[in-house]
Amino acid sequence: MPAWLKDAVFYEIYPQSFCDTNGDGIGDIEGIITKLDYVKSLGANALWLNPIYDSPFKDAGYDVRDYKKVAERYGTNDDLVRLFEEAHKKGIKVLLDLVPGHTSEEHEWFKKSCEYEPNDLWNRYIWTNGAFCGIGGHPYIGGEAERDGCYMLNFFKCQPALNYGVLNRTEPWQMPVDHPDCIATREAMKDIMRFWLDKGCDGFRVDMADSLVKEDDEVKSATGAIWQNIREMLDKDYPEAALVSEWSNPECALKYGFHADFYLDHHGNGLNVLFRDGETEGGDHSYFKKDGGDSPMRFLADYEHKYENSKKYGYISFITCNHDTPRCTKTMGIDELKVAYSFIFTMPGVPFLYYGDEIGMRYLENVKTKEGGFQRTGSRSPMQWDKSAKNYGFSEADSDKLYIPVDASSDAPAVSSAEADADSLIHTVRSIIALRHAKEDLQADADFQVVYAKEGERLFIYRRGSLVIAVNPGEKEEKAYKKDCADILSKAGEIKGNLIYGIGTADLTDDAVVLGPQSFAIFE
Ligand code: NOJ
User: Fold this and answer.
1) Each residue's pLDDT tens digit, 392-425
2) C-beta 363 within 6 A of ligand 1
3) Tens digits of per-residue pLDDT, 169-224?
4) Cα–Cα distance measured from residue 189 to residue 301, given in angstroms and rounded to the nearest whole number
5) CATH 3.90.400.10 residue ranges for the chain
6) 447-523: in CATH 1.10.3720.10
7) Could you identify the atom of ligand 1 that is nearest to the CA of residue 154?
8) How far is CA 459 from CA 69, 319, 395, 449, in A?
């Protein structure tokens, strides 16, 4: 386990929308370099960049045409190496996005795989043995290649699935996972990882990490074996490199070698019921909604076993949002977010802050889809730096040339105005992250334990190491008697109860913890 992950706080940058320095309306690597001090000022000490590779951009770069070449619109490979170097000088690590499940249909591998005559890349993708032989249970394309076969898709039409083999084979064209050509796909991915690690990158966020071997078993053991093999390479040759999975099943992913696994917004799961439970019948019952919000019990029912069963292997990554998920501002106000983010940055594991969430950037409704974004496009709009500058300081380009339009609302947040307002969200983000760095008990490894949570009640109290954290996202004052609390709070006399961080009001009396409306408190 790379030791730096213990105190890592990530900032996710969608490079298209962060900072444009050459006036073409789209963000670039130079732009990221110029904003490293800003990233650092938030307390983030690591970056995750969405794919920056050469691509036709039918899925915003998740359709890779050349894994070893930076897309021209972002700069050059040398620029990326300079970003690694400049970031490292400031104590910031940089993760790239590895897309191992599929390539673009324009990748050279795929072109070779489509040829009429068999060649050494014929089996790099999953093909059936006839143009009229389709694939049950998976999307596929037929009739597009000279080769007499149909190929499997991994996501959009532009993303043919790479071939790591099929575990439970039922068709003659399916190849076993230990076929030399399937092993060669894995080795090709390792070669790409080595290429960037040797240039100074600090690891990878791995796209659709669970999607490699098809017809895998329930616990994805064949896909897992591939990751174990890759982890062996890292442990041996790049022990400081980090691997973070887009899997959202830490009980599997961490056992198979990932250092951290994202807790993603999946309908009804623990993360969803905290922040984005708006689709439930009868209104939005997300825990962090001040009105109508639920108890933390549904979150805990999902989270606790994930945490307990995976903590010895690695970390769960809470996210404020990501490029696939509606920003929380879609349904929550700034006061709600202050409490919600304080929770995220005091939980175990490795947290991720999505660019712009620190200023409460809005989810933009009704923006035209861009590069396969569809409803995701509303979370990918340009970063708002400076309220008074053209395009909020994101780009000098005319507004019709921008990658995605900027937030047109008159009260749109920006870094400049947020910094000037003592009451703004950015200050909450900075102070809670600073406290996390200062207190080991708030970092990745310190133990987590539920101290107080009850069905029908809003108050949630948990312990991190020797700290006690109390949350009340609701509109009314809430109280928990110490005798009803687990562990250290029931031994009332033994704790000092110094309040070291607070939003709203919090009181630790002789027999109870009392939290005012929308309050968050950390007691030492
Ligand atoms: C997950 C990525 O986060 C998403 O943006 C992308 O479209 C798909 N994987 C396909 O690569």
Assistant:
1) 999 999 999 999 999 999 999 999 999 999 999 9
2) no
3) 999 999 999 999 999 999 999 999 999 999 999 999 999 999 999 999 999 999 99
4) 36
5) 102-163
6) no
7) 10
8) 50, 22, 44, 15
pTM exceeding 0.85:
yes
User: What does the alpha-carbon distance between residue 357 and residue 341 come to, in Å, rounded to a whole number?
Assistant: 10
Alpha carbon separation from 438 to 91, 153, 269 (Å, rounded): 16, 47, 31
Indicate which residue's Cα is closest to atom 5 of ligand 1: 324
**Secondary structure (3-state) at 418:** helix
User: Which residues are bridge partners to 203 per DSSP?
Assistant: 242
Ligand 1 close to Cβ of residue 207 (< 6 A): yes
Dihedral, CA atoms, 17, 19, 20, 25, nearest 10 degrees?
30
Token digits for 335?
């006061």
* Arch. (CATH architecture) of 3-100+182-438: Alpha-Beta Barrel (3.20)
H or E stretch at 357: none
| Opening angle at CA 331, ends 327 and 332, nearest 5 | 90
Which part of the chain is CATH 3.20.20.80? 3-100+182-438
Please tell me the residue having the least CA distance from ligand 1 atom 8. 62
Q: Which CATH number fits domain 102-163: 3.40.920.10, 3.90.400.10, 2.40.30.10, 3.40.50.150?
A: 3.90.400.10
Residues 101-113: tens digit of each pLDDT: 999 999 999 999 9
Ligand 1, residue 155: give the atom nearest the CA: 10
Residue ranges matching CATH 2.60.40.1180 in the chain:
447-523
**C-alpha to C-alpha distances, 50 to 47, 124, 406, nearest whole angstrom:** 10, 24, 20
Q: To test the ligand 1 pocket, which listed residue (52, 57, 62) has its Cβ within 8 A of the most ligand atoms?
A: 62
- Find out whether the beta carbon of 62 lies less than 6 Å from any atom of ligand 1: yes
**Three-state secondary structure readout of 221-284:** HHHHHHHHHHHHHHHHHCCCCEEEECCCCHHHHCCCCCCEEECCCCCCCHHHHHHCCCCCCCCC
Q: At what angle do helices 334-344 and 425-438 cross, to 10 degrees?
A: 10
